[in-house]
Amino acid sequence: MGTGMDLPSSERESASRITLVFLGRLEDLAGGGSRAVAAASSIDAVIDALEPQLARALREPRVKLAVNGILLQDNDAPVLRHGDEIAFLPPVSGG
Amino acid sequence: MGTGMDLPSSERESASRITLVFLGRLEDLAGGGSRAVAAASSIDAVIDALEPQLARALREPRVKLAVNGILLQDNDAPVLRHGDEIAFLPPVSGG
Amino acid sequence: MAEATTDVRLATGPFDPAHELEAFTAAHPEAGGIVSFLGQVRAGGGVEALELQHYEPLTLPAMKALAARVRERWELDGLLLIHRSGVMEPGAPIVLVAAAARHRRDAFAAADFAMDHLKSESWFWKREKAGGEWRWIEPRDQDFEDIARWG
Amino acid sequence: MAEATTDVRLATGPFDPAHELEAFTAAHPEAGGIVSFLGQVRAGGGVEALELQHYEPLTLPAMKALAARVRERWELDGLLLIHRSGVMEPGAPIVLVAAAARHRRDAFAAADFAMDHLKSESWFWKREKAGGEWRWIEPRDQDFEDIARWG
Q1: B94–chain C Cβ distance below 8 A for any pair
Q2: Does residue C63 register a pLDDT over 80?
Q3: What is the pLDDT of residues A39-71, one digit of tens each?
Q4: By three-state DSSP, how is residue A68 classified?
Q5: How far, in Å, CA of A91 to CA of A73, rounded?
Q6: Half-sphere exposure (CA, 13 Å, Cβ side) for D63?
Q7: Residue contact D138–A94, C-beta within 8 A
Q8: pTM for this entry
Q9: Alpha helices of chain C — where are they, by DSSP H?
Q10: Which of A9, A15, A13, A26 is nearest to A65 (CA)?
Q11: Predicted confidence (pLDDT) at residue B38 exceeds the cutoff of 80
Q12: What is chain D's mean pLDDT, rounded?
């Protein structure tokens, strides 16, 4: 966390990667369980950079998000950092 | 059942035995789990022939009776036969 | 689908609940869920031994009748009901009830109902040994409350 | 009295429910009753395999939090909660919940509650293989009804 702060701004940008994790049926849509992408300033910006069909599925109201294992509340808009992991969690399956 | 019918009356009387079975705490009062006694014409008469303290315990309203494994209803007054088994069943213990 | 089975036993000697439950489970691969209750003689509390007395002509037929009522009331793939009699040490199994069902709710309710009714209706007389003395156990009010839950 | 224990595990490979239950029972000789629920992959119905996916940073912490709630709500001597993830064949164990308690009612309610909440709240995604095709399983309304029972 924060180890990139000593690098010049341009290098920080180029090194900045985050991991997206797709659970359940989102894995099929994304074509894989996880994906490394360039960080953007916000989750919205990260999603905007994805394929439109996948982006739509990730924005469904029943899909919850977790950043580094912490579930986001509705109005949370965390600032993303290098190495963050964003998990997209569709409703869990019934018994 | 009824095999004694061909014997003379006096022999039937002398051969006529029934078994009493005492469950739970009644076993302690009776000094044993079962007892062979001379048959009498009715259960009341059988009980009357026992020690008074035991007779009282067997007549408690919560003590149920079974004759040959069949539970008696309140007003049943079966005629006893040679070889019958009368079980005295105090309330069963809780869990 | 395998035929629904009912297995009711009055055990006059020790039984192995893990083995029984494993065999029951193996016999019901079509059941999604299996609920079991194991009652054992409590260790601690100063009880040195427990004796359960049964009366053969009533005890087993009543257990079988209870099992039949449980089978009628819930949709089960299998029902197992084993109850000990005789003298038992602390830690020894007393009773094992297992219900296998397609639906979890049925399995829970069936096992729960069977235990409530086994405890309060079945023909067992119980005494405990503590401090070297045997003492008969009287009925408890709790059992009547448990029964009343089932309407 | 032995210390109350809570054992929560996310199993990524097969486990043996009979062995687990036997060990749990042996660890709780002071409990009068042990209720268990075993969920297994149903045989029949054309399902060839089941896969449960978990998300490590959420799944195990949520199971532990559920176990803590159960421990607060009922007086238990011990609680065991094992859940599989990964690909399983028909007949394979998925979930084992066991509650050991002095009082039968507590053990039944705790196991029942734990299952209702495990099924509907825990972070598992499930897909089934039938006819060679994998299909994701959506949430069921029944789970929300099960939860509502607990007020």
Answers
A1: yes
A2: yes
A3: 888 999 999 999 999 999 999 999 999 999 999
A4: coil
A5: 15
A6: 25
A7: yes
A8: 0.87
A9: 17-26, 56-73, 104-121, 141-148
A10: A26
A11: yes
A12: 91
Superfamily of domain A17-89: Beta-grasp domain (3.10.20.30)
Taking only the tens place, the pLDDT of each residue in D38-68 is 999 999 888 999 999 999 999 999 999 999 9
As for the ipTM of the complex, it is 0.83
List CB contacts (< 8 A) between D123 and chain A: 89, 92
User: How many angstroms away from the CA of C91 is the closest CA of chain D?
Assistant: 5
B to A contact (≥3 Cβ pairs closer than 8 Å) = no
CA distance B14 to B39: 9
- Please give the full DSSP string across C2-43, using - where no structure is assigned: PPPEEEEEEESS---HHHHHHHHHHT-TT-SEEEEEEEEPPS
| Residue, of B59 and C3, whose pLDDT is higher | B59
Question: What domains, with CATH codes, occur in chain C?
Answer: 11-148 (3.90.1170.40)
A-contacting chains (≥3 CB pairs under 8 Å): D
Q: What does the pLDDT read at residue C3? A: 55
Chain D closest CA to A67's CA: distance in Å? 10
The CA distance from C120 to C140, in Å, is 9
- pLDDT for res D117: 92
Q: What CA–CA distance (Å, rounded) separates C141 from B94?
A: 8
Helices of type H across D1-151: 17-26, 56-73, 104-121, 141-148
Task: Measure CB to CB from residue D30 to each of C44, C108, C111 and give the nearest one.
Answer: C44
Contacts of D108 in chain C (CB under 8 A): 37, 108, 111-112, 115
Selection from C115, C121, C84 nearest residue C97 by Cα: C115
In this complex, do B94 and C137 lie within 8 Å of one another by their Cβ atoms? yes
